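Changelog-linked ticket: copper (II) ion example.
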Amino acid sequence: MKTVLNVKGMKCGGCETTVRETVKACTGVTDVKPNFKENTVEIEYEEGKADLVAISKAISAKGFQVG
Ligand SMILES: [Cu+2]
């Protein structure tokens, strides 16, 4: 499964790395592609294993705005 979240607050490649590592640490996530210029985070995940609400909360906890 693949989804794209709108994430505001990423300003550079370092922010992308923070988001990538944060999301990759979540259960069921197989790939993460953040794009700070477009304010998007593409997430590939295993359906039934990944919890998108938990992923969104993890991103928010790092200081970015999801939604
Ligand atoms: Cu940054």
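Closing comment: Example verified and attached. The mean pLDDT is 98. The helical segments are 13-24, 52-61.
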